[in-house]
Amino acid sequence: MNSRIKIVIPTEKTNLDESLSVKVAGKKWNVKIDESKITLLSQNEYEVPSGKWTEEDMEIDGNVHKITNRVVGHVRNAMYLAYGVSMQWGYEAEYGSTKADDNLELFPSIHQSGISTTFDDKTLEVRREMFQDIGSVDSKAVTLMLNYWRRAHELDDLGFNSEAYLNYYKVLECLEGMNENPKQKMIFLDKFAPIKDVDGKLKRKPMAKIRRQLGRRPTDGQIEAQIIKASKILATSKFTFISTDFVIHLIDLINVRDEFNVAHNLLIYIPKDSYYGIGQHSDSFSYVIRYLSSIAALSKLTILNYAFPKKYAYNWKEREWSIK
Predict the structure, then answer these.
(1) Angle at the Cα of 304 from the Cα atoms of 82 and 310, rounded to 5 degrees
(2) What residue numbers bound the domain in which 120 lies?
(3) How many structural domains is the chain composed of?
(4) Same domain membership, residue 166 and residue 307
(5) pLDDT tens sequence across 144-200
(6) How far from each other are the two terminal CA atoms of the chain, in whole angstroms?
(7) Please, are residues 165 and 256 in contact by the beta-carbon 8 Å criterion?
(8) Among 281, 282, 224, which residue's Cα sits nearest to residue 254?
(9) pLDDT value of residue 107
């Protein structure tokens, strides 16, 4: 027997009324987002259990669960990146005569009961486009970064700020490790840390504006290492032009990660810290939290620019996304 699969994911309350679609493993799914749930319906039919629950039925049921889990994960990634709406960890699925309750009660809801989000009409166009774009991605690299970004958002929702920062930063580490555009990386490196004659030796020196902005700490060598790291991230993200202020902001975010062993103990112990520098309750983690929204936006921008070069822009002052 074949049937379409229906999946329902409970969400926080919103004013959304969206009809969209995603593609997973080459198969399209209809996505309906309303005020308190996301409803997914497969456009294709899949083999479903007969209801007798033979060994063959159990195998078919297992295959359906693999499909639903993959689709739910894909939609969660797109939903968090585009709309930022909190969702329950569980979901309900129907296929044929079978109704599955996938851990709806096993885990608590990520969002607090009673909260809601109202979206401005002028922002919905870019959010719809972003959802559709992310929903059509079939790239292991992009999926990996989206998984980190979604996990960060969920941790942020739960109040685990430093752990959220670490996962947002993992997106940047993925891009750095990929190092996919070494030619552009050298262009950035030569611009922001040009080679100069220093006492008769050729050395890279950080741009004067970067040196002034960062103060005495860190050293020129540390700044050079951070510019190399930033250059790899930005080049892999397919940026071709970036301002000095943007690079300084990225180095600030790298510094936060370098200065603190985020989500664990502080590397720099501060005697007056009322929590003895342990975990996210350290006084000094206010420094991490201060940069949390910035790294969320920047890591999101790098994912989008990597997957859809020069399509999306972010206004840092107004904190708004737009399509170029």
Answers:
(1) 125
(2) 2-135
(3) 2
(4) yes
(5) 999 999 999 988 887 777 788 889 999 999 999 999 999 999 999 999 999 988 888
(6) 47
(7) yes
(8) 224
(9) 47
